[in-house]
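Working notes for the structural subgroup meeting. M.R. asked for a predicted model of this chain before we commit to crystallization trials. I am recording the input and output together here so anyone reviewing the notebook later can reproduce the run.

Input as submitted:
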Amino acid sequence: MQITQTLHTAILVTDLEKSEYFYGQVLGLAKINRSLKYPGAWYQVGNHQIHLIVATTVPTENPNEKWGRNPHVAFSVADLDLAKQELLEQNYPIQASASGRAALFTQDPDGNVIELSQHQ
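Returned structure, recorded in token form:
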């Protein structure tokens, strides 16, 4: 087997409206059309897609104190300081990377962990 690329990441959410605001407005992802008959929203990130799928509950119990050691999705950002400022202004939690890298972690409205890294 040879994997050639990733296609999408599915993220369970309980409140589609709040999640669409977070992924579309806060993170600035481009929403795309979808033709499936169950509730959700799709976003394009380069050649990758994020699929928000509505569920009644989301198993986001994060047992590790350091969010980067929990399941998460990672995005590259152009300006990490600006991303941090925008998240704090909108009252989203943040945690600096424990590794010392130029990265931080936040959580979406359901507690799913999101990593934001600045690559040089």
